[in-house]
Fold each of these.
Amino acid sequence: MARQEHTGICHICGEYKKLTYEHIPPEAAFNSQRRKMSTVEELMGNEKDNRAPWDIEGLKYKQFQQGTGFFTLCGECNSFTGAKYGGAYSDFIKAIGTEIVKIPKENRKQELSFHVERIKLLAFFKQVVSMFCSLNTEQFGTSFKDFLLDENNTNFDTNKYKVCMYLHAGRIDRLVPFQAQLNINTGNMEFYSEISTFPVGFIFYDLSHNRTTSFYGSDITSFSQCDYSSLYNLDIQIPFLECNTPFGLDFRKF
Protein backbone atom coordinates (compact mmCIF):
# COMPACT_ATOMS: atom_id res chain seq x y z
CA MET A 1 0.00 0.00 0.00
CA ALA A 2 1.44 3.37 -1.05
CA ARG A 3 2.22 5.84 1.67
CA GLN A 4 0.23 9.04 1.80
CA GLU A 5 2.13 12.03 0.48
CA HIS A 6 2.14 15.09 2.71
CA THR A 7 2.49 18.59 1.28
CA GLY A 8 2.33 21.97 2.95
CA ILE A 9 4.33 24.88 4.29
CA CYS A 10 7.71 23.86 5.67
CA HIS A 11 8.02 25.05 9.26
CA ILE A 12 11.55 26.34 8.71
CA CYS A 13 12.05 27.65 5.16
CA GLY A 14 8.40 28.64 4.69
CA GLU A 15 8.12 27.14 1.18
CA TYR A 16 5.23 24.99 0.00
CA LYS A 17 6.75 21.55 -0.62
CA LYS A 18 6.44 17.86 -0.01
CA LEU A 19 6.85 17.39 3.74
CA THR A 20 8.90 14.74 5.49
CA TYR A 21 8.49 13.22 8.94
CA GLU A 22 10.39 15.15 11.60
CA HIS A 23 11.03 13.15 14.76
CA ILE A 24 10.54 15.11 17.99
CA PRO A 25 13.04 14.47 19.52
CA PRO A 26 15.44 13.00 16.90
CA GLU A 27 15.03 9.31 16.19
CA ALA A 28 18.51 8.50 17.53
CA ALA A 29 17.67 10.13 20.88
CA PHE A 30 15.42 7.40 22.33
CA ASN A 31 12.64 8.11 19.81
CA SER A 32 12.52 5.17 17.43
CA GLN A 33 9.79 3.10 19.09
CA ARG A 34 6.02 3.23 18.71
CA ARG A 35 4.36 5.65 21.14
CA LYS A 36 0.89 6.82 21.97
CA MET A 37 -0.33 10.04 23.57
CA SER A 38 -3.75 11.00 24.88
CA THR A 39 -4.89 14.59 24.62
CA VAL A 40 -5.68 16.97 27.46
CA GLU A 41 -9.23 17.21 26.11
CA GLU A 42 -9.73 13.46 26.37
CA LEU A 43 -8.41 13.35 29.91
CA MET A 44 -10.55 16.27 31.08
CA GLY A 45 -13.69 15.15 29.27
CA ASN A 46 -13.67 11.53 30.38
CA GLU A 47 -16.38 10.67 32.87
CA LYS A 48 -14.61 7.81 34.60
CA ASP A 49 -14.62 8.49 38.34
CA ASN A 50 -11.36 8.86 40.26
CA ARG A 51 -9.13 8.58 37.19
CA ALA A 52 -5.48 9.23 38.05
CA PRO A 53 -3.84 11.91 35.87
CA TRP A 54 -1.56 9.30 34.28
CA ASP A 55 -4.32 6.71 33.74
CA ILE A 56 -4.94 6.78 29.99
CA GLU A 57 -6.50 3.32 29.75
CA GLY A 58 -9.60 3.44 27.57
CA LEU A 59 -8.96 6.99 26.33
CA LYS A 60 -8.63 7.90 22.69
CA TYR A 61 -5.02 8.51 21.76
CA LYS A 62 -2.78 9.45 18.86
CA GLN A 63 -0.57 6.60 17.69
CA PHE A 64 2.97 7.40 16.56
CA GLN A 65 4.15 4.34 14.64
CA GLN A 66 7.75 5.46 14.18
CA GLY A 67 8.39 7.59 17.24
CA THR A 68 6.80 10.93 18.05
CA GLY A 69 6.90 13.55 15.32
CA PHE A 70 5.00 15.28 12.55
CA PHE A 71 5.14 15.94 8.80
CA THR A 72 6.35 19.52 9.13
CA LEU A 73 9.72 19.93 7.34
CA CYS A 74 10.65 19.71 3.69
CA GLY A 75 13.34 17.21 2.77
CA GLU A 76 16.01 19.88 2.39
CA CYS A 77 15.43 21.43 5.83
CA ASN A 78 15.05 18.05 7.50
CA SER A 79 18.32 16.83 5.98
CA PHE A 80 20.18 20.05 6.79
CA THR A 81 19.17 20.22 10.45
CA GLY A 82 19.72 16.50 10.91
CA ALA A 83 23.21 16.63 9.44
CA LYS A 84 24.28 19.83 11.17
CA TYR A 85 22.61 19.49 14.58
CA GLY A 86 21.15 16.03 15.09
CA GLY A 87 24.40 14.29 15.98
CA ALA A 88 25.39 16.77 18.68
CA TYR A 89 21.92 16.57 20.18
CA SER A 90 21.75 12.78 20.19
CA ASP A 91 25.24 12.38 21.67
CA PHE A 92 24.43 14.73 24.55
CA ILE A 93 21.03 13.19 25.24
CA LYS A 94 22.33 9.62 25.13
CA ALA A 95 25.06 10.56 27.61
CA ILE A 96 22.42 11.94 29.98
CA GLY A 97 20.07 9.01 29.44
CA THR A 98 22.81 6.49 30.16
CA GLU A 99 23.33 8.05 33.58
CA ILE A 100 19.63 8.33 34.39
CA VAL A 101 18.81 4.68 33.71
CA LYS A 102 21.29 3.73 36.42
CA ILE A 103 19.04 5.46 38.96
CA PRO A 104 15.87 3.66 40.18
CA LYS A 105 12.76 5.56 39.11
CA GLU A 106 11.73 6.18 42.71
CA ASN A 107 15.06 7.93 43.33
CA ARG A 108 14.87 10.29 40.35
CA LYS A 109 14.43 13.45 42.38
CA GLN A 110 16.15 16.77 43.06
CA GLU A 111 18.85 17.35 40.43
CA LEU A 112 21.91 15.77 38.87
CA SER A 113 25.28 17.24 37.97
CA PHE A 114 26.72 16.37 34.57
CA HIS A 115 30.15 16.83 33.06
CA VAL A 116 30.06 16.45 29.29
CA GLU A 117 33.16 16.90 27.15
CA ARG A 118 33.62 18.00 23.56
CA ILE A 119 30.06 18.96 22.74
CA LYS A 120 28.93 21.40 20.07
CA LEU A 121 26.62 23.50 22.22
CA LEU A 122 25.29 25.71 19.41
CA ALA A 123 24.40 22.65 17.32
CA PHE A 124 22.65 21.09 20.29
CA PHE A 125 20.68 24.28 20.92
CA LYS A 126 19.66 24.64 17.27
CA GLN A 127 18.29 21.11 17.26
CA VAL A 128 16.13 22.01 20.26
CA VAL A 129 14.84 25.13 18.46
CA SER A 130 14.08 23.13 15.31
CA MET A 131 11.98 20.72 17.40
CA PHE A 132 9.85 23.60 18.66
CA CYS A 133 9.52 24.90 15.10
CA SER A 134 8.06 21.55 14.06
CA LEU A 135 5.71 21.41 17.03
CA ASN A 136 4.32 24.91 16.57
CA THR A 137 2.90 26.97 13.68
CA GLU A 138 4.61 27.76 10.38
CA GLN A 139 4.65 31.43 11.38
CA PHE A 140 6.60 30.65 14.53
CA GLY A 141 8.96 28.24 12.82
CA THR A 142 9.87 30.41 9.86
CA SER A 143 10.84 33.27 12.20
CA PHE A 144 13.94 31.17 12.97
CA LYS A 145 14.75 30.43 9.32
CA ASP A 146 18.02 32.37 9.21
CA PHE A 147 19.13 31.11 12.61
CA LEU A 148 18.58 27.47 11.67
CA LEU A 149 19.63 27.38 8.01
CA ASP A 150 23.01 29.01 8.69
CA GLU A 151 24.90 26.88 11.19
CA ASN A 152 27.12 29.81 12.19
CA ASN A 153 24.26 32.25 12.81
CA THR A 154 23.93 33.30 16.48
CA ASN A 155 21.15 35.86 16.02
CA PHE A 156 18.82 34.37 18.60
CA ASP A 157 16.94 37.04 20.57
CA THR A 158 17.89 36.24 24.16
CA ASN A 159 15.86 39.21 25.40
CA LYS A 160 12.67 37.80 23.90
CA TYR A 161 13.15 34.05 24.37
CA LYS A 162 14.41 31.73 27.08
CA VAL A 163 14.94 27.97 26.72
CA CYS A 164 15.22 25.73 29.78
CA MET A 165 15.98 22.02 30.15
CA TYR A 166 15.03 19.52 32.83
CA LEU A 167 15.33 15.78 33.46
CA HIS A 168 12.13 13.94 32.63
CA ALA A 169 10.63 11.95 35.50
CA GLY A 170 7.09 10.65 35.80
CA ARG A 171 4.79 8.65 33.54
CA ILE A 172 3.65 10.97 30.74
CA ASP A 173 5.33 12.38 27.62
CA ARG A 174 4.39 15.90 26.57
CA LEU A 175 4.23 17.83 23.31
CA VAL A 176 2.62 21.16 24.20
CA PRO A 177 2.36 23.89 21.51
CA PHE A 178 2.56 27.52 22.60
CA GLN A 179 -0.14 28.53 25.02
CA ALA A 180 -0.81 31.14 27.69
CA GLN A 181 -1.22 29.89 31.22
CA LEU A 182 -1.81 31.50 34.59
CA ASN A 183 0.70 30.46 37.22
CA ILE A 184 -1.49 30.06 40.30
CA ASN A 185 1.55 30.26 42.58
CA THR A 186 2.75 33.64 41.31
CA GLY A 187 -0.38 35.07 39.70
CA ASN A 188 1.62 35.74 36.51
CA MET A 189 0.78 34.74 32.94
CA GLU A 190 3.27 32.44 31.23
CA PHE A 191 3.50 31.99 27.46
CA TYR A 192 5.43 28.86 26.60
CA SER A 193 5.76 25.63 24.65
CA GLU A 194 7.00 22.36 26.14
CA ILE A 195 8.53 19.13 24.81
CA SER A 196 9.18 16.34 27.30
CA THR A 197 10.13 12.73 26.64
CA PHE A 198 12.71 10.50 28.30
CA PRO A 199 15.31 11.53 29.31
CA VAL A 200 14.83 15.33 29.09
CA GLY A 201 12.23 18.02 28.77
CA PHE A 202 12.52 21.51 27.28
CA ILE A 203 10.47 24.65 27.88
CA PHE A 204 10.56 27.48 25.34
CA TYR A 205 9.43 30.72 26.98
CA ASP A 206 8.31 33.80 25.04
CA LEU A 207 9.39 36.58 27.39
CA SER A 208 7.50 39.26 25.46
CA HIS A 209 4.27 37.71 26.80
CA ASN A 210 5.63 36.58 30.17
CA ARG A 211 5.53 38.48 33.41
CA THR A 212 7.11 35.78 35.49
CA THR A 213 10.68 35.92 36.78
CA SER A 214 10.70 32.29 37.89
CA PHE A 215 11.39 29.57 35.35
CA TYR A 216 11.40 25.79 35.51
CA GLY A 217 14.57 23.89 34.62
CA SER A 218 18.14 24.90 33.83
CA ASP A 219 18.57 27.87 31.49
CA ILE A 220 20.42 26.85 28.31
CA THR A 221 19.69 30.01 26.29
CA SER A 222 23.35 31.03 26.40
CA PHE A 223 24.18 28.02 24.19
CA SER A 224 22.72 30.07 21.32
CA GLN A 225 25.73 32.40 21.43
CA CYS A 226 28.41 29.70 21.20
CA ASP A 227 30.66 29.12 18.19
CA TYR A 228 29.35 26.38 15.91
CA SER A 229 32.67 24.74 15.15
CA SER A 230 33.97 24.82 18.73
CA LEU A 231 33.80 21.87 21.08
CA TYR A 232 32.98 22.72 24.69
CA ASN A 233 33.35 20.99 28.03
CA LEU A 234 30.17 21.53 30.01
CA ASP A 235 29.39 21.27 33.71
CA ILE A 236 25.68 21.64 34.34
CA GLN A 237 23.15 20.88 37.06
CA ILE A 238 19.74 19.80 35.77
CA PRO A 239 16.69 19.23 38.00
CA PHE A 240 14.32 16.29 37.80
CA LEU A 241 10.72 17.38 37.18
CA GLU A 242 7.82 14.92 37.24
CA CYS A 243 5.45 14.74 34.28
CA ASN A 244 2.39 12.82 35.43
CA THR A 245 -0.22 14.65 33.36
CA PRO A 246 -0.32 15.97 29.78
CA PHE A 247 -0.79 19.53 31.11
CA GLY A 248 2.12 21.87 30.41
CA LEU A 249 4.20 23.08 33.35
CA ASP A 250 2.39 20.65 35.63
CA PHE A 251 5.08 19.00 37.74
CA ARG A 252 2.97 17.77 40.62
CA LYS A 253 3.99 14.55 42.30
CA PHE A 254 1.37 11.84 42.83
Amino acid sequence: MVQAVNTGIDESVSKRINVTLPDSVVEELEQWADNQGRSLANLAAFLLESSLKEAKAKGEIPTQEFPAQQKKPRSDK
Protein backbone atom coordinates (compact mmCIF):
# COMPACT_ATOMS: atom_id res chain seq x y z
CA MET A 1 0.00 0.00 0.00
CA VAL A 2 1.30 3.45 -0.92
CA GLN A 3 -0.31 6.50 0.65
CA ALA A 4 0.32 10.12 -0.36
CA VAL A 5 1.10 12.44 2.51
CA ASN A 6 1.20 16.22 2.26
CA THR A 7 3.49 17.44 5.02
CA GLY A 8 2.67 21.10 4.48
CA ILE A 9 6.38 21.92 4.46
CA ASP A 10 6.68 22.44 0.72
CA GLU A 11 4.89 21.76 -2.55
CA SER A 12 6.17 18.17 -2.87
CA VAL A 13 4.24 15.14 -1.73
CA SER A 14 5.81 12.22 0.10
CA LYS A 15 4.57 8.64 -0.11
CA ARG A 16 4.16 6.15 2.71
CA ILE A 17 4.94 2.48 2.21
CA ASN A 18 4.60 -0.57 4.42
CA VAL A 19 7.58 -2.90 4.66
CA THR A 20 7.76 -6.26 6.40
CA LEU A 21 11.17 -7.06 7.92
CA PRO A 22 12.50 -9.81 10.17
CA ASP A 23 12.54 -8.92 13.88
CA SER A 24 16.34 -9.06 13.97
CA VAL A 25 16.63 -6.48 11.19
CA VAL A 26 14.14 -4.17 12.90
CA GLU A 27 16.02 -4.46 16.19
CA GLU A 28 19.33 -3.54 14.53
CA LEU A 29 17.73 -0.64 12.65
CA GLU A 30 16.14 0.63 15.88
CA GLN A 31 19.54 0.55 17.60
CA TRP A 32 21.16 2.37 14.68
CA ALA A 33 18.41 5.00 14.60
CA ASP A 34 18.65 5.49 18.37
CA ASN A 35 22.43 5.90 18.15
CA GLN A 36 21.94 8.61 15.53
CA GLY A 37 19.14 10.33 17.43
CA ARG A 38 16.59 9.84 14.67
CA SER A 39 13.39 7.89 14.22
CA LEU A 40 13.33 4.47 12.62
CA ALA A 41 11.21 5.85 9.78
CA ASN A 42 13.68 8.67 9.17
CA LEU A 43 16.63 6.26 9.11
CA ALA A 44 14.79 3.92 6.74
CA ALA A 45 13.93 6.79 4.38
CA PHE A 46 17.56 7.98 4.45
CA LEU A 47 18.88 4.48 3.71
CA LEU A 48 16.44 3.94 0.85
CA GLU A 49 17.21 7.33 -0.72
CA SER A 50 20.97 6.77 -0.36
CA SER A 51 20.74 3.31 -1.92
CA LEU A 52 18.66 4.63 -4.79
CA LYS A 53 21.16 7.42 -5.54
CA GLU A 54 24.05 4.95 -5.39
CA ALA A 55 22.31 2.47 -7.71
CA LYS A 56 21.54 5.24 -10.22
CA ALA A 57 25.16 6.45 -10.11
CA LYS A 58 26.35 2.89 -10.85
CA GLY A 59 23.87 2.59 -13.73
CA GLU A 60 22.07 -0.27 -12.03
CA ILE A 61 18.64 1.31 -12.52
CA PRO A 62 17.22 3.79 -15.02
CA THR A 63 17.37 7.46 -14.06
CA GLN A 64 14.01 8.28 -15.67
CA GLU A 65 11.09 8.96 -13.36
CA PHE A 66 8.51 6.19 -13.12
CA PRO A 67 9.85 3.85 -15.85
CA ALA A 68 7.35 1.18 -14.78
CA GLN A 69 4.50 3.40 -15.90
CA GLN A 70 5.75 3.69 -19.48
CA LYS A 71 3.60 1.77 -21.91
CA LYS A 72 5.28 -1.23 -23.46
CA PRO A 73 4.58 -2.18 -27.07
CA ARG A 74 1.84 -4.77 -27.19
CA SER A 75 2.64 -8.07 -28.83
CA ASP A 76 -0.42 -9.77 -30.31
CA LYS A 77 1.53 -12.77 -31.59
